[in-house]
Amino acid sequence: MNRESITIVSGLPRSGTSMMMKMLEAGGMQALTDNIRTADEDNPKGYYEFEQVKQIEHDQSWLQDARGKAVKMISALLKHLPSNYTYKVIFIRRKMEEILASQNQMLVRREKASDAVDDEKMAALFRLHLQQVTAWVTKQPNFDIIYVNYNEILQNPVEQMSKINQFLGHTLDTENMAGVIDQALYRQRK
Fold first, then answer.
1. Global pTM?
2. What is the CATH number of the domain that holds 173?
3. C-beta pairs of 150-156 under 8 Å, 24+ apart in sequence
4. ∠132-82-70 over CA atoms, to 5°?
5. Are the C-beta atoms of 138 and 150 separated by less than 8 Å?
């Protein structure tokens, strides 16, 4: 793996990015996190977030320290990554109805309205966003991207870990990565 590249784990919220971060860490890659957002009922194994990521549009100073590491970033923020770094993006996809069910459950637990936008409209907005992000990423010469499906990771972890390991230069312990998968946490099966 190129130690100058920054590995970005991205996707829609509730798509499995935290699980992928945990897998990369188990495989031997250092995760850039700050542990401010702690594990809870929605992510019992942790969120693997780095708060400064949310400020990427205005503060990119942290990227220097991210080289050779994995950092989680929702897909809406990818467009703010500067062109003076190279990125290996692991983009997680998941069945849309599972993402929406997971988001709705999280909102219920936090006692927030989950019906502000109905699922059909939210799904359409998310699909449009994914099309736009995919089109944008393909035009970025400093981005190398692999699309990984959350549901396929759960069904066939060995094959999926092999693809990710190849993408990152055969430096990861794929057995340890697959050991992270906890089928009991797959609570929004559709």
1. 0.88
2. 3.40.50.300
3. 150/15, 150/16, 150/19, 150/92, 150/93, 150/94, 150/95, 150/98, 151/94, 151/95, 151/98, 153/16, 153/19, 153/20, 153/181, 154/181, 154/183, 154/186
4. 85
5. no
Q: Which range of residues forms the domain containing residue 18?
A: 6-185
**What DSSP line would sit under 48-107, residue for residue?**
---GGGGGTTT--TTHHHHTTSEEEEEGGGGGGS-TTS-EEEEEEE--HHHHHHHHHHHH
At 45-57, the pLDDT tens digits run 667 889 999 999 9
Is 56 a member of any domain?
yes
Whether residue 58 lies inside any domain: the answer is: yes
Q: Of 139, 137, 155, 156, whose CA–CA distance to 147 is shortest? A: 137
CA 28 to mean position of chain CA atoms: 17
**How far apart are alpha carbons 104 and 188 in whole angstroms?**
10
Q: 119-151 pLDDT, tens per residue?
A: 889 889 999 999 999 999 999 999 999 999 999
